[in-house]
Amino acid sequence: MTITLSAAPATAPAAGVTKVHGAISATQERILSPVGVYVQHYLRRLESNDADDQSDHLKVHADHTAAEAAKAIGNLDLSDEEDEEESEDLLMTDPKEWKQQDHYAVLGLSKLRY
């Protein structure tokens, strides 16, 4: 298979010619404050030198995150037994007219719309 490339435009720089667009700024000293639950956990682990503390903390954090996600979802049931019925109008819609369609209804997810 042969690929032929077109010629470079006349305004392109010659091969090997570089152009500098800016300079590297001088370094600056900054004070950073580490924050968050992971930093707190790390500091607590350094103080206690307990290896089990890490797995316990991560399990509690994962459980908390899972509980918050479950609360956000609520009692949403997406089982296949509760499929929405497709109307004739929905089945006859033209995919090219996607801007005018109800995308939740097309996917059978009308009950998830805000």
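[next item in queue]
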Amino acid sequence: MPPNLGNGEQYHNVQLYGVLMKKPFAHQSSKWSKRFFIIKDGFLLYYSDGEKKEFEKKRFFNIHPKGAIPLGGCDIQPVEENGHPFSIHITNDNFNGVVALSTDTGFERDKWVNMLRISSRVTFKNSQLGEAMIQQLEDQGLQMAQDKHDLYGQLQTEATALQAEKEKTEELERIQAEMEKEKEEMEQLSEDLRSEYDKLKEEMKLTAEAMQNIEEDKHELMNTTSNLQANIEALAKEKEKTLGELRERQNVANKLSQEKEDLSKNTDELKEMLKKIEDQMQRLHDDRMQAENRLRENEEQSVVLQEEKNSISDHATELEESIKELTTQKQITENELKEEVKARYEAENRLKVANESLSKLDKTLMVAGTTQSDGNKTYSYSENAQEEMSQSVKNLKRFFENVAFEAQLDAKKPVLMKNALNTRKAYVRRAKTLRYEARKQTSKTRSTATIMHSTRMHASASSE
């Protein structure tokens, strides 16, 4: 394979290239295969279909094709074959068979047929006649080539500037792709925050229901405590009454010693009943203390739940502020993206105007007449040519001034740094959310432990 030519000479001397279907030549097989074809200087060269990528990448063709068909004097006809309606037949008296090709569309077939027919006119005789004409044209164009060579140095600098502008446009496209990616990440983060907000709302609802149940238990315990207090007071009255009866009976016993033996039995029974009443009062007192402890624990749990509710409310407020900030940042990013796209379109339009000015300037220099004076070369241009050249130079000057101004603006506006800072803020907010969830889990564990301790104490008191 020949070395890569920097100016792409072999690439530009190719008249037409592309991938076509080809039927085997000079035998009866009907199997079609994909091949990469090149029309160059009156020859049809073909390679394997994978050669196209190498050709477009390296900008020169392999000098060792699978086959080379001379097109001089060939007959090119569009035909239709079974399964290939857009076929081409190439025949020649010197060929032992027909070269059959096929394209995908009628437009491509017409393009290939036209170029093949043009290339078939290049015979040995035509090439001999063309050599004299080429020599004459070279002599006539020698002076114009010299003028173009003198202008080449000036246009080379301008072409370099245009290449830099093209690279800048590609950089803007890359930045736009990165901004699109950041936009998708921010939208995903916003969606996650909304999900967390909905989850917190549901947890606040469950917390409110739990507090309501605790309030109901508190009222029930207070009612139970009131009932126990009333029973204790009734038993105390009954005790006083029993003691009064005991004193009366003791007095009667002192007066009626004869009936002492009969009454002693009743006195023992009353003492035993008094003991039972005192035991029952002690149990009621213990139940009252346990109820007060449960009430105190419920009040502590209510305080903890109230603190958790306040924490959840504060976090929900922070989430709402984060969503607002993300919405604002998303709008800012979209506006900046629109400005970048608008600036890109304006730069392309200015580049197009600059290219048109270069084309007009080149055409004016090529068309302008030349005269000889004392052996030195002098040039004369018409007024229209001078006016077109002046206008083209002004357009180019305006284009390069705009390029310099935009470069200054880009240096003062680092968009990527701003986007990186906003992304870091979003990560900080996410870290705060994770810390809040950890605190909430710890508080929930502490509340569960308190409830289990209260349940064990109640069960122990009930068993006693």
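[queue empty]
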